[in-house]
Amino acid sequence: MAKARPSNEPPPNNPRGFAETVSIEAWRTPFDQTTGVADLHVDVVFGEGRIGSHKTPVHFRMRLTRAEVRLVRDGLSVLRFKPETLARAPMLSSEKSSTVKTKTRGRLAGALEATAQRVGVSFKASGSAERTHEDKMTSTVVVGAMEFQHRVIEDGYAFSITPTVGAVLKGQPWDPDLPRVSIRDSGHPRGRDEPPEPRVEVRCRREDLVIEDIHFTDREEGFFSRLDKAKQLAVEAYLRDQVLRLGVDVGDMSHPFTEILLADASPGNRPRDRKSD
Predict the structure, then answer these.
(1) Separation in Å, CA 89 to CA 22, 33, 116, 147, 168
(2) Which pLDDT tens digit goes with each residue over 13-33?
(3) Are 267 and 28 in contact (CB under 8 A)?
């Protein structure tokens, strides 16, 4: 089924300077003329950001150890997310196996031995050999490079994303062709006016930023690696603070739990038109 796109060309999404570290695209199907319901899709990709260049005083690589994707209603709450349609996190399990060993003796052999013992006769039946039976049960589930867990927030839903392979986020946490949630327009049916749009945000904490491979343009190669650990940490903290200035809604930049808005988008704001299925 074809994905809906408005006829006018929208402005691009806002990556807020983190386009290589995280990119996001959102779109929705048309609101159904009968029910006023549409499906919201989100395509988010995590990677390695390269901040700065040979023309800047310092350049480095930046990645994320975790992030949060938020689905936010419009400011007037005209739109309603349908909770029964939310793409909830799958129940994950790992490969497990269990072995049960049982020892059995032939009934007749056991009875003969018991009788012989009562009358004081030595007897050993050949059919009384022990037998071992093993039952092995194995269940397997395929786990991707990332996992996510949903939760309810004041104005919508949030998906907390963490890596399952390695220490940083890389790639896509879900299939973007599968909708995240369905939206109902409470103002349906409408005349000529268009319904508002939800907003999709990618956020992280200050401590979730991984800054590495630091190079100073006006210093000799290896300068940073020769600093003691305390000075390296001070430089990394400074660079994090500079990076945070690219975002918005940043509070106390010295606190590890400070929240950063890395990117945001709305279904009406897409950098490119997706092909129909």
Answers:
(1) 21, 30, 64, 8, 19
(2) 566 667 789 999 999 999 999
(3) yes
